[in-house]
Amino acid sequence: MNRNIFTRHKESMRYIFLNFILLLFISTTFASNTQEFQLKNGLKLIVREDHRAPVVLSSIWYKVGSSYEHNGETGISHMLEHMMFKGTKEFGSGVFNHMVGDSGGDNNANTARDFTVYYETVAPKKLDMTFQLEADRMQHLLLNEKAFQNERKVVMEERRMRVDDDPQSVTYERFNAAAFVNNPYHHPVIGWMTDIEHYTIHDLQNWYHQFYAPNNAVIIVIGDVNADKVYSEVKKYFNNIKPSVIPVLKPRQEIHALGEKDIIVNIPAQLPWLVMGYHVPAHSYTLLLIAQILSGGDSARLSDDLIREHAIAVEADANYSLYHLHGTQFIFSGTPTPKYSVLQLKNAFFDEVKRLHTTLVTQDELNRAKAQLIASRIYQNDSLMKQMFSLGEPEMVGLSWRESDQFAAKIQLVTPEDIRADAQKYFVKNNLTVAELIPK
């Protein structure tokens, strides 16, 4: 072996080993500072003590999102998220935001495919207030017809701004609808406009009573707190809330694809765009590493080959996320340079896929991708918000928050042979959906 190559290989191995040891130490430290509690009504509480700053992030996660919805009610989870700030008998409309803001804190919410989460960042002495507010609206939300009609207009405008007026968002929405035929990810989180226009206040009330219950929720608290004290405060406000019978969702199994699916989106746009995806399973650390090898920074393959060396693309990305309740997509996307067409960019992506099929990733390249992912996970611990999502997302898809503490160990297990095997298994034409945005 060339001495320089041998030296670089040793340095690569040393770098990933040091990162692995560092993440292992940090994960062990955070895991030892994380405790789980269960209330008698089924509510789960996860508390992570982090005393680096006098602040606390409190959140409540509900196991409901767009993947729980069916045709005719798409977007109702997101609509209810908006209505959750319209008040209760005790705390009227807008009072929630004012109380958190007046205390020096801030709050927000997010609806996703598999969950809805509400969170507040406050001083530790105000944590009790957030529990009082969240427990109240878990039970006593007032769903007023007039407020609902006004908020419906807000959501419709949000959809117009985020999707309908954005050519790439329209294309991605149509891509998902084609890729997921009988899969809960078929429709957008915000919902189809026709559904937003037509569901009623009674639909929202039914959705609220079905899914907003202690036995369908997880509270995650991270910050400058004492776990046992937090548990006592949570019991004070939530322990007497009655559990509900949570609906058992009917399984929707994706139908077997019979060939590549191609769609053309021909609308006014400044630039063409391509998105293509392979149907893949959730929770795959091998696929996460493939995405990192392809698109993890300036030294990654797509940047190196398609953007810098051959100038085929203005942008080129590969994306895969771990946590889903259902099968998902490994996504390639990009915009060709003026000298090249969408078809040529598509073929360039296929060349990258063929390379994964036929040639083993080198150990150095794999080590670099592992080191980047591990380093990124280390840096996430500087943010209470990122810690919250790393604990909450696994909980929402049938896993445990402890999954985040096993990240480095599971990344380390992946081999070059695993990379090639998964590429050969999943990156095939019968498993592919392609959407092209062609400016009108």
Summarize the structure.
This protein is an alpha+beta fold. 47% of the residues lie in helices and 17% in strands.
Order of helices and strands: HEEEHHEEHHHHHEHEEHHEEHHHHHE
Largest sheet: 6 strands, mixed
Distance between the termini: 55 Å
Average pLDDT confidence is: 94
Indicate the CATH topology of the largest domain: Cytochrome Bc1 Complex, Chain A, domain 1
Low-pLDDT sequence parts: 5-9
The gyration radius over C-alpha positions equals 24 Å
- Overall 3D shape: globular
CATH homologous superfamily classification of the largest domain? Metalloenzyme, LuxS/M16 peptidase-like
Helical fraction equals: 40-55%
What is the CATH architecture assignment of the largest domain? 2-Layer Sandwich
Strand order of the largest sheet: 1-2-6-3-5-4
Number of helices: 16
Name of the CATH first level of the largest domain: Alpha Beta
